Amino acid sequence: MNQSVRIDKWLWSARIYKTRTLATEACRKGQVSIAGVKVKPSRMVTEGEILNVRKNPLTLTLKILSPIQNRVPARLIPEVLQDLTPAEEYEMLEMARIASFGKRAAGSGRPTKKERRDLESFLNNEDE
Predict the structure, then answer these.
(1) 5: which strand partners?
(2) What's the fold here for domain 1-89?
(3) Residue 63: left (phi > 0), alpha (psi -120 to 50), or beta?
(4) DSSP letters along 108-120, please?
(5) How far does the chain reach from its first CA to its final CA, in angstroms?
(6) Nearest-angstrom CA–CA distance, 80 and 26
(7) Which whole-number Å values give the CA distances from 12 to 2, 3, 34, 68, 118, in the listed order?
(8) N or C terminus of the chain: which is more exposed, having fewer CB within 10 Å?
C-alpha cells in the first residue's frame, strides 16, 4: 500500500510549519521543492521523497519516512522524517544569530547613555 498525502498537510503534520496555512503559503512562494522543482500545495508526496524547505536563513533537507495526515507529537517526529540537512546550514543559522546580537529590538528607541557606554565597553573588551 503506497500511501500519499498533500505536501502542505504533511509539512503541518510533521511540525515543519505551525499551521497548515503557513505550509500552503510557503509552497505558493516557492520555498518548498522536490528534486529542484518548486511544488504546489496540492502535490502528493510519498515515502522516500526528499524535500528542500527554505526557512530563512537556512534550507532544510528532509526525507519523508511516513506520509502522515494527522499532526503527531514532537517525540514521534523521528519516525516521520529524517533530517538530511548539512551541518554547514546549521552553522550559518548560528552565525546569523550571533550577527544579530548587537541589534536592538524594533520600537525600543535609541539606547540610553548607560546602554551606549556598556555596549562600547563590551566591544572594546572584545577587540583586546
Answers:
(1) 45
(2) 3.10.290
(3) beta
(4) S-SPPHHHHHHHH
(5) 64
(6) 20
(7) 20, 17, 17, 10, 43
(8) N
Nearest to 83 by CA among 35, 22, 14: 14
**Mean confidence (pLDDT) of the chain:** 89
Strand-pair partners of 90 = none
This prediction has a pTM of 0.74
Give every CB contact of residue 4 below 8 A, 6+ residues apart in sequence: 44, 45, 46, 67
Length of the chain: 128
The residue behind cell 552565525 is 95
All structural domains of the chain with their residue ranges: 1-89
